[in-house]
Amino acid sequence: MFTVENTLKALQLFSQKVEDNHVYLSELDTPIGDGDHGFNMNRGVKALSSALEGQDFNEVFEVFQKAAMELMSNVGGASGPLYGSAMLSMAKKAKETTDVLPIVQAGLEGIQKRGQAQVGDKTMVDVWQQVVDALEKDETIDANKITQWVESTKDLKANKGRASYLGERSVGYIDPGSQSSGYFFESLLEAGVI
Ligand code: ADP
Ligand code: MG
Ligand code: MG
């Protein structure tokens, strides 16, 4: 179950992981993109973590709403509106329930509504879908599984986003947005949400 406390903790962990790994995220985006994913995300999470600090939230949806706003207006690139949509859909769902599965599922739907990517297109959707599937089957999610899901995007050919311009040449590289999404789910794990 999401609570105000574990949601805040997860988002702070996410911010820290993105900050610590932003150079790596941009390195992943270099062979199959324009090399800015880490810088884009880092700008967003810096704004996010300062917006969350010292703020009082009464409800989970308020936390996701704030996260949506900060990511939407500070990340930029393709990933900004996608993470923004994920958080906004999660906020909407959190007004009805604080259960983990429907909220994460709503996040995935938000990403797909915005970006029109399907499973196998080598985007962050691939990692989000794996998490939703595992939650649906009530499987335990650990850091190893998350890493595997991120790494399995290597084998895919990109059909959406900048990497799709490379066609077959996009095979063999981890999708950067899947890696940043991996950090998001590792953060949910460490915060005790999933
Ligand atoms: P840009 O490509 O504009 O430079 P970023 O580098 O910040 O943006 O983000 C790239 C990431 O965004 C990709 O690795 C991929 O995971 C994700 N992405 C791009 N297009 C889509 C889409 N249509 N649906 C889902 N995710 C996408
Ligand atoms: Mg990029
Ligand atoms: Mg860019």
UniProtKB/TrEMBL annotation:
Involved pathway(s): Polyol metabolism; glycerol degradation
SMART domains per UniProt: Dak2
Catalytic activity: dihydroxyacetone + phosphoenolpyruvate = dihydroxyacetone phosphate + pyruvate
Transmembrane annotation, as ranges: none
InterPro entries xrefs: DhaK_L_YcgS (IPR012737), DhaL_dom (IPR004007), DhaL_dom_sf (IPR036117), Dihydroxyacetone_Kinase (IPR050861)
Coiled coil: none
Assembly description: Homodimer. The dihydroxyacetone kinase complex is composed of a homodimer of DhaM, a homodimer of DhaK and the subunit DhaL.
Designated name of the protein: phosphoenolpyruvate--glycerone phosphotransferase
Lineage: Bacteria, Bacillati, Bacillota, Bacilli, Lactobacillales
Name of the coding gene: dhaL
